[in-house]
Write a structure and sequence with these properties.
By secondary structure, the chain is of the alpha/beta class. It has 8 helices and 9 strands. The chain is globular, with a radius of gyration of 17 Å.
Amino acid sequence: MHTLADYHVHTSFSGDSSVLPNVMIEHAIDRGITHLCLTDHMDYDYVDSDACFEFDPEEYFRHLLSLKEIYSDRIHLAIGIELGLQPYLSKKHHNLIFSHAFDFVIGSIHLVNQRDPYYPSFYEGRREEEAYLEYFQCALQNLKAYSNFDVFGHLDYVVRYGPNKNRDYSYRKYKELLDEILRALIKKDIGLEVNTGGFRYGLGAPNPCREIICRYRELGGKIVTLGSDAHEPGYLAYEFDKAAELLKACGFRSYYLFRSRKPEEIPL
């Protein structure tokens, strides 16, 4: 991978990171990353009142545009965002995205019917399979409600936090629903993020898993991005070599970065 592009990274503009943007950028340069996209969380109406996953877009752009200029001769910096999708937020998301010049927009599911799969309570009192199924149903519901984003983030994110993680999980168990999601992505020209955070969570695979990535390719999907989901510098471009090999095994010869919401193809 001659061009190394990490397109899912969080900084102190996200409620779950304390790393200043310039610190993350400096570390990215040190790691040989050539293209970096900061994608801080915008999760309106997050359920935990003690946590805030919103930032001031005006301040965000002022700060990042300044850094973009400072580091222009050392790294290609893109300004992105990770939207926490909920169907009723479609208009709010639309207004946000069209009133600011983002380079890249990730659409992710962090809340499933007002509950976060990060917490054990999401799985209590039911089979793990039911919890996973609800997550994928919610993903499809969100796709139908709003689709003005560039890639779908960590499609099987829920598996990171299940009681047994991916021990009993497989694409085949949810094939019909997952295929409907993948076909919708392809039809709407939305890419699939290969998020290496899954390796960090001990899954031995990215999110989504290999079978989903290969199936996306089989169905005609072309646009994939690589994101570490790093909230601290040590995880920048985490296990990207493994992810690149997996993509090649699934038939991909390239991945994508985005500028001004337009995809640019780069070889693996």
